[in-house]
Design brief:
Number of domains: 4
Helix content: 25-40%
Bound molecules: FE2/S2 (inorganic) cluster
Number of strands: 29
CATH topology of the largest domain: Nucleotidyltransferase, domain 5
Strand order of the largest sheet: 14-13-12-15-17-16
CATH superfamily of the largest domain: Domain of unknown function (DUF4445)
Distance between the termini: 66 Å
Shape: elongated
Number of helices: 19
Structural class: alpha/beta
Length: 692
């Protein structure tokens, strides 16, 4: 290995990382990978017993790289590799890189084991390769037996061989293991596998678990603790494969639906914080049990856990009183990444397991937003990317590789169906899509649980079991946008009562008007969209847009290039309708994408590669936090954003694809009779409330 390199040495290119170098004939492929910093797993230390170091040769003429690669450019299988193949089996084309040596030019594929990496790459919405470099490494060693003439302890000889075989210097050993070491070493004739944890907080790597013989398994969990849902992936740290994924509802809901009511619960009940911490930890433990059962994994084989959460959930989970987050200046107890032993936070996995929480960006922009930021990477972009996670509090990140700014905006629960007369959570029976004929004003809609539209034959039968029970968040966006496009509401969001003459679906309620979406069968509710519903949506969307606009002003840009919707809500809304409503700024529609649980994907990335932990810690420190409550022009931006799509901002790209109603001239203002000072002052009051 230390032989001098010369230009006639074989050239080896590793894919997908693209790293390349020349190595003398006879160099084991695993050594070449290590020298180039290409991550290839190994548990047995090159003894050809763990099978973790598999690679594949890509054959052919790679003219661009000036490499003709062939299987023959690897040494033939030796006895150890043949034994492994006989006993454990090797998929066709795979070789053990610890045994195969370089004999000629090669293009080598390091299989990115499967689903997980595909998932991470897709969610990261780029061609980046997520290389594995987890914080836990499994190291098999054969320890020297005790000798009366060498009075070193068993533990010291274990450390010596871990240094000699694996290069671990100055290892720490978790104190709980010390009384166990002698028994474990003797069980399999001095052969053991050490689980070694290496991450920033420890300047010294630490043996966190020890097993007799070869232990060829190590798992981790990536968990997103949301206010309503907790989502978890169980991942093999050795192959990178997601073994199981699942979710559960956050039991803290019983203490309060939204975050602020949970903070109030803590403030008003002496043991409120403890009760909520206990509830969320129990839910996480139950979910670990569920994913382990699904993946047939022993929970004690979990060595590392990564968590993301919004600031209040983050604090409650870590046992921190969140009271300060309920009031200005919204001080976080800790904003940086937190690490510790899982047993210190009551998480029941391996006794030596560690946990890591991503850093929080600000008092209202949490580790979940940091996870989404890591996943989508606005700071990696040349173009201006807007990343929004819409919940009761929208978390907004805007930036590119030069500068990233972040804020949160109090959208309230309207987008989740609360505060809407016929609103409900997305569940079977909820209307999820709506279209309105601009001529007849007749609607057609689809409900969760059937693929048929309401005007299709068989809809009534198909929807019979679920019923048609209400409108969920995605349909609330669509119905208000469609009401605007069909002229039922003005750009100020006022239902045009004069249309009563044209359609029986416009109905009067005192001084305002509603739109009848569905009459309802016997026993089913009548589903209408009232003036108050529209106001609630306007207030929510104006809060979000004003927050976005504030960040755009900070960045000095008039438009954004790409928009990423994170979270469940974003997965269901149609970007076109979100834009018609003016929820998001004008943008090429093909550049608006839902990215699912990006926060969870970020947690997964931090679990699989500790370099991503350093990356997001560094980025979060650089992100500029904007507090909307302190910005003097938030109120004006909010008032402008009450209009559909917006009182002042043009939407030229949207107009290319959707026929928007003509804009009213400024002098027309008030022509609807409802755009009165009374309503204005209500909006202003709402804006003030939001600022406060
Ligand atoms: Fe274990 Fe190659 S390193 S089989």
């Amino acid at each position: 290995m230390n032989a001098p390199l010369n230009s006639t040495d074989p050239l080896v290119l590793f894919m997908p990382s693209g790293k390349r170098g020349r190595f003398p004939v006879g160099t084991p492929v695993l050594d070449a990978a290590r020298q180039l910093g290409v991550y290839v797993e190994s548990v047995c230390g090159g003894r050809a017993t763990c099978g973790r170091c598999q690679i594949e040769v890509q054959e052919g003429n790679f003219a661009k790289h000036k490499i003709v690669s062939s299987l023959d450019h690897l040494s033939p299988k030796g006895p150890k590799e043949e034994r492994y193949e006989r006993v454990r089996g090797l998929p066709e084309g795979r070789r053990l890189s610890c045994s195969a040596t370089i004999q000629g030019d090669l293009v080598i594929d390091v299989p990115q084991d499967t689903v997980i990496n595909a998932q991470v790459v897709r969610k990261a919405a780029s061609d980046r390769v997520i290389e594995r470099n987890s914080a836990v490494q499994m190291c098999y060693v054969e320890v020297e037996q005790p000798d009366m003439h060498k009075p070193t302890g068993d533990l010291e000889r274990l450390k010596t061989v871990l240094q000699d075989d694996w290069g671990w210097k100055d290892l720490r050993v978790a104190p709980y293991l010390i009384p166990e070491v002698q028994k474990i070493l003797r069980k399999e004739n001095w052969a053991v596998t050490a689980a070694i944890h290496k991450d920033m907080e420890f300047s010294r790597a630490t043996v966190i678990a020890l097993y007799p013989g070869l232990k060829n398994e190590a798992y981790g969990i990536a968990c997103d603790i949301g206010s309503t849902t907790i989502a978890m992936h169980l991942v093999s740290l050795l192959s990178g494969r997601v073994v199981a994924s699942s979710g559960t509802s956050n039991p803290q809901i019983r203490f309060g639906e939204d975050l602020m009511s949970r903070v109030s619960y803590v403030m008003m009940n002496p043991d409120g914080r403890e009760a909520m911490t206990k509830a969320v930890r129990e839910a996480v433990n139950t979910l670990i049990g569920k994913v382990c059962e699904e993946g047939s994994v022993d929970r004690h084989d979990i060595f590392d856990c990564v968590f993301v959460a919004n600031p209040i959930m983050h604090h409650l989970f870590l046992g921190i009183d969140p009271t300060e987050l309920g009031q200005a200046p919204f001080a976080l107890a800790v904003s940086g990444a937190v690490q510790g032993w899982t047993n210190e936070i009551g998480i029941d996995v391996n006794r030596g397991a560690r946990f890591y929480t991503l850093p929080c960006i600000a008092g209202h922009v949490g580790a979940d937003a940091a996870g989404a930021t890591l996943s989508e990477g606005p700071y990696r972009q040349d173009s201006m990317m807007l990343l929004v996670d819409v919940g009761t509090n929208a978390e907004i990140v805007l930036g590119n590789k030069n500068r990233v700014v972040a804020a949160s905006s109090p959208t309230g629960p309207a987008f989740e169906g609360a505060e809407i007369s016929s609103g409900q959570r997305a569940a079977p029976g909820a209307i999820e899509r709506v279209r309105i004929d601009p001529e007849t004003l007749e609607p057609r809609y689809r409900v969760i649980g059937t693929d048929k539209w309401s005007d299709e034959e068989g809809f009534e039968e198909a929807s019979w079991t679920t019923g048609v029970t209400g409108i969920c968040g995605s349909a609330i966006i669509e119905v208000v946008a469609e009401m605007y496009l069909s002229g039922i509401i003005s750009e100020d969001g006022v239902v045009d009562g004069s249309l009563m003459a044209k359609s029986p679906r416009i109905i009067q309620n005192g001084r305002t008007f509603s739109y009848l979406l569905r009459e309802g069968r016997q026993g089913e509710p009548r589903i209408t969209v009232t003036q108050n519903d529209i106001r609630a949506i306007q207030l929510a969307k104006a809060a979000l847009y004003a927050g976005v606009k504030l960040l755009m002003e900070k960045q000095g840009v008039e438009t954004v290039d790409t928009i990423r919707f994170a979270g469940a809500f974003g997965s269901f809304i149609d970007p076109k309708y979100a834009m018609v409503l003016g929820l998001i700024p004008d943008c090429d529609l093909s550049e608006v994408k839902a990215v699912g649980n990006a926060a969870g994907t970020g947690a997964l990335m931090a679990l699989l590669n500790r370099d991503h932990r350093r990356e997001i810690e560094k980025q979060v420190a650089k992100i500029e936090k904007i507090e909307t409550a302190l910005e003097p022009n938030f109120q004006q931006l909010f008032i402008d954003a009450m209009a559909l799509p917006n009182k002042v901002d043009p939407f030229p790209k949207l107009a290319e694809q959707v026929k928007l109603p003509p804009r009213k001239a400024a002098s027309d203002e008030g022509a609807t009779g409802d755009a009165t000072p009374r309503r204005r002052s209500r909006e202003e009051r709402a804006a003030r409330r939001n600022r406060e």
